[in-house]
Design a protein that fits this description.
single chain, 11 strands, mainly beta, 7-stranded mixed sheet
């Protein structure tokens, strides 16, 4: 099992910044990817950013250039630096561990954090 504990989110004004962190514990694999997702009211969960064990990153188009994902493998912790925040960034943010599996077919399983609220005012 994997447990993910997220830092508190918070409030920010338009153009402001926030930094989220998420510490993973339990059965963490060296090759696990880590990432951030978010879900706004009445909307589906969406990918924000992911980072592989070797540092390869992927971002949603809506946050590219504003958000930065990073990880500390020694601490099993993933971070999300959010700059130039916009009201549309308001959502519950979830950290995740993505694990590649081989059986029965290649795929990915995801372990989720508890979620933290980020609110951006205009």
């Amino acid at each position: 099992q994997v447990q993910l504990v997220e830092s508190e989110g918070g409030l920010a004004q338009f153009g402001g910044s926030l930094r989220l962190s998420c510490a993973a514990s339990g059965s963490i694999f060296t090759k696990d990817a880590m990432g951030w997702y978010r879900q706004a009211p009445e909307k589906q969960r969406e990918l924000v950013a992911t980072i592989t064990s070797d540092g390869t990153t992927d971002y949603a188009e809506s946050v590219k250039g504003r958000f930065t994902i990073s990880r500390d493998n020694a601490k099993n912790t993933v971070y999300l630096q959010m700059n130039n925040l916009k009201p549309e960034d308001t959502a519950v943010y979830y950290c995740a561990v993505d694990r590649a599996i081989e059986d029965p077919k290649p795929g990915i399983i995801t372990f989720w954090g508890q979620g933290t609220q980020v609110t951006v005012s205009s």
